[in-house]
Write a structure and sequence with these properties.
The protein is an alpha+beta fold and about 210 residues long. The protein contains 9 helices and 12 strands. The relative contact order is 0.08.
């Protein structure tokens, strides 16, 4: 009767209403997550609310149906413990409804157009970053810079070109690839971010792979 939302056994004991055996008996009828106890009905309400939110997210944003884990529950001390009981799938810092996966939905045509563009041009401006992220996850392109993309084939060709350059300079890489200076620079910055190269002054060197 006293417990609905999360509370610790220590706080309940501090109220002095129950002897330890009585308190233990009462807590056994509650749900528990770590040091927190709460009513089963309260937990089910949280699960229902989360399922509804994930369903709405999947409908409004099929390309990215996940919700950041930190946004599922209020910013309360009990949230990390309760999060584990919500019956959601956790991937890369986001929560998904069980079995949910990104889908193109009505953006299939836009996806096909973007794939065709990166296949025929060295560097393509990307306005829809969610779409670009979806296609990158599927190996169709690589995002570079702030809002641009290149084909996976060009990215891979650049990786091969790096092996023959010593030292690796922007001009040398550009000439080896036969691409614009801007594209070369964005590719090299992506290689830095991916841990393939390390910039030292105006030059780069290949990182040792372990």
């Amino acid at each position: 009767a006293l417990v609905r939302e999360p509370v610790t056994g220590e706080r309940l004991q501090a109220r002095g209403l129950f002897a330890p055996p009585e308190l233990a008996s009462g807590l056994a009828a509650l749900e528990q997550a770590g040091d927190w106890f709460f009513a089963p009905e309260w937990l089910e309400e949280q699960r229902t609310a989360v399922r509804r939110r994930l369903s709405e997210r999947a409908e409004s944003s099929p390309l990215d149906p996940g919700v950041p884990l930190g946004e599922l529950l209020p910013r309360e001390p009990w949230a990390p413990a309760v999060l584990k009981l919500l019956h959601v799938e956790r991937r890369d810092g986001k929560a998904y409804a069980p079995g949910a996966a990104p889908k193109l939905g009505d953006q299939a045509a836009a996806a096909a157009k973007l794939e065709a563009q990166v296949a025929t041009a060295d560097l393509v401006r990307v306005d829809d970053r969610s779409l670009a992220g979806f296609l990158e996850d599927r190996g169709a392109l690589k995002r570079v810079g702030d809002g641009f993309a290149v084909s996976t084939a060009l990215y891979d060709r650049g990786v091969e070109a790096l092996q023959a350059l010593s030292p690796i300079t922007l001009a040398g890489f550009r000439d080896a690839m036969g691409i614009s200076r801007r594209t070369a620079q964005l590719l090299l910055e992506r290689y830095d971010a991916d841990g393939l190269t390390l910039r030292v002054g105006d030059e780069r060197r290949l990182r040792t792979r372990r």
